[in-house]
Amino acid sequence: MIDSRPRLLETAYAQATALKRRQLWLGLIVLAVLVAFSVNIAEISLSKFYQHIGSFFSYFDRIAHLEDGRPVIADPAEWFWGWKKWLALMGETLLMAYLGTLLGATAAFVLCFLASQNLTQSKGVVFLTRRLLEFSRTVPELVFALIFVVAFSLGPLPGILALAIHSAGALGKLFAEVVENIDMKPVEGVVAAGGNWFHKIRFAVLPQVASNFASYALLRFEINVRGASVLGFVGAGGIGQTLLEVIRKFYYADISALLVMIIATVMIIDAVTERIRHKLIGMDARS
To answer: Which of 227, 230, 240, 261 is nearest to 82 (CA)?
Structure first.
């Protein structure tokens, strides 16, 4: 009996290994079928991709040269001839992202407590609030922007409203998840002392979630800076509208200048907000 145990263990191990191997192959086969099905639906043609790949790189070669054929870095003054106008539009894009994030974070702050099961006793309120947040973040920002452009005409206002609604949906979900993972002992203490629902939020919940809320809001601001640059494509203000114009008119040097300005701005914003977020998270961990 004792001598048969290693053999039984070896047999069980071999069976478990064979089962995992079969599951792996089955998963790979299913993945291959889905990829093939997706390629067929999307009408992806490798031969067409190979034939036109040169046009892709030639476009980047064009935006790297001025109208007279010189490289853009040969004459930075000519390359960034409209830097004052573009910088003002970039500032408008940043303001759109800032206001959109501020309004969205404010709405998310209010709704996240209603969407948290550990704070809201009514399942109906939780359900409706979560569905509202889902709708807000599921509809693309461009769709919201197009609707608001029709309603309020061209300009930064449609972009701000589109960013605010989408930010409210995304941040509301993140905020609610943070709230649902808090330590409930301080909440129980406030209730035991006779505190109401608002007292629970102010004295038991906010001290635990404030730094995470701020961190997520800063992260969303980074995303909205990029999003605001694209919303200009549908007339929602900012530098994206000018970028679309120069693309349509084939002003290649202007395209590269605007792209460099947008990329540099986003990189600076990302670096600054990342340091702030890390400090906030570190403060929360120490507390």
So the answer is: 261
